[in-house]
Amino acid sequence: MLNGLQPWHLIILVLVVVLLFGAKRLPDAARSVGKSMKIFRAETKSMRDEEETPAEEPVKRELPPVTPQPKATEQQVADLQRQLDELKKQQPSTDAQKHAS
Description:
The protein is mainly α.
């Protein structure tokens, strides 16, 4: 007589579930379980599809070639050094004016 679930076992199980969760929560719970099963099936199907299709080779991307910057001429370096020296000469005079104020 021990051959699994009998119909009256299922009736008792349904009554216990209704008593525990209430009649209002059961439709929401069933909906949630249904959505979860749908997502689970979709994910397992996509995993099976990925196993069947061969993996694609990764796309190799190369960086564009570096264009060399033109080298500064000695004249440009001298001009920049002169401008820097002029700025350094002006700076102490502006600091002295700030302290005098």
